[in-house]
Amino acid sequence: MAKSIVAIAKGTQVEEMVERSLMLLGGVRSLIKKNSTVVVKPNAGHMGLPESSVNTNPDIVAAVIQELRKAQPKEIILAEASAIGCNTIDCFKASGIGEAAEKAGIDRIIDIKADPDLIQMPIRDARSDLKNISLPRFLIEADHIVNLPIFKSHVSMVFTGALKNIKGVVQDRIHYLMHQTNLADAMMDVWSVVRADLSIVDLIRPMEGFGPHSGHPTDFGCVVAGKDPVAVDATVCRMVGLDINKVDYFRAATQRGLGHFSKKKIEIRGQTIEEVHKPLYLPYLEGFEAWPEYHFYLDHACSSCQGLTAFTMTKLKLLGEYEKNKGLNIIVGQKRTLPEGVQPGKNLLFIGDCLRPLRKKINNDCLFAAGCPPVEPYPYRAIVDREDQIEIKPDGRERHTKETEIFMEKLYGKK
Fold first, then answer.
1. Residues 120 and 204 in one domain
2. Which of 44, 72, 90, 349 ranks highest by number of CB atoms within 10 Å?
3. Are residues 180 and 109 in the same domain?
4. Total domains, the chain
C-alpha cells in the first residue's frame, strides 16, 4: 500500500514555507487542475486578532492563495462558517484573513452560514446521530477544497487541526447538532460527504494551553502539508509531543477510509519530526477529572463554554481560590431541568446564555455567568465573588488586567 506523504517546512518566511511544502508534494500544478474552482477553507470561526492565534494566520492564507494562482485555476473562493453566535464576515475582518485574501487576489469570499443555495446530502453508514446535512452547492461542485487550519489546543477534541477544520463547512443548525452527539464521530460523518483534497496546517504560531479561545500562542515556525488529513494531523501531533493514542478519533478516521496515522504508512519529506520537535502545553488530556472537588454537568455544552470552564478551573488553582470554592456544581450547556440531586442556590453556577430559560425556571436562584460564550473573567468572577456576572462592572477591566498578568506569569512563566 502506498504511503501517505506529509511535507514539513520550517523557516521564517511564510511564502517560502508554503511554496516549499507544496513543492515537496510535487508542486502546486500537480495538485491543482488548470481552470478549476478552488475553495480555501481557513479556520476563522471566532473573533480573534491575528496575533491571538485563535484563527489561521492571515499571512499563510495570502501565501496559499498566491501559490494556488500558479496553477491557473478559474476561480479561488475563500469560505468559512463561523461558530454559533459568531458572524463569519466579522471574524474575517477581526482576524485579518479577509483583508489578506483580498490583497492576494481572492475572487470571492463566502459566508457559508448565509448561503441559501443548499443541497441535502445523505450520510451513508452514519456513525453519529447525523443522517444528512445541507451543504452549499458551490462547495459540492468545487474541483478542489484546500483545508487551511491552525493547530490549537481544543477542549472537546484535545486539539484542532486538519480533520476538525472541516467541521466549519456546515450551517448553525448542523453545527449545533454535532455538539449534541458524539463530536468525533460527527466530524468523520461530515468528512464522508465533503473531503478536502489538500490540507496545509498553520504551525507558525500555534496555540497551546486553554484553546480554542483562551490559549497561548507560541513560536513554532512550521507549515505542514499533505493530501491525507489523518497523516497530516498525526504528524503534527508527533511534532508537538502529543501522544496520538490519547486522541480517540484517529482510529475512527482510519476506519472511515480517510487516511493513515501509523508511522509505517507515512513518508515525511522536508524537515524531520525530530528536527522540529517542540512539546506544547496541552492541558485537556486529563479532562475535567483533573478537578475532582467540583461537580461538572457538561452534556450538550459547546466547546467554547467547555474551554472557558477548564480555563476558569486552572485560574482558580493558580490564583489561590480553588480550595475556597470546592463542592460547587457547575452546569454548562442547554438543559431543561436541573440534574438529579442538584439544588438551586449559591453553590450552583450556570455558564452561558443557553441556560437562561432554566435559570428563570428556578427563579434565578443560582450564580450566573452570562454570554454566548461569556467573556473570560465572568465564570471566575462569579465563583470568587459569589455574584452574577451579566455586565462588566466599573472596576472590571483593571481588575481583570491585574489577574491576567499574575495568572499568565504563573501558567507560562511570562507576562
1. yes
2. 44
3. yes
4. 2
pLDDT at position 415: 39
Residue numbers in the chain where pLDDT is lower than 50:
415
Please give the pLDDT value at position 1: 61
Both 204 and 190 in one domain: the answer is yes
274 and 298 assigned to the same domain: no
190 and 113 housed in the same domain:
yes
Cα–Cα distance measured from residue 121 to residue 174, given in angstroms and rounded to the nearest whole number: 12
**Residues 220 and 292 reside in one and the same domain:** no
pLDDT of residue 179: 74
In which domain, by residue range, is 347 found?
A: 287-412
Q: For the whole model, what pTM was predicted?
A: 0.85
Q: Are residues 340 and 262 in the same domain?
A: no
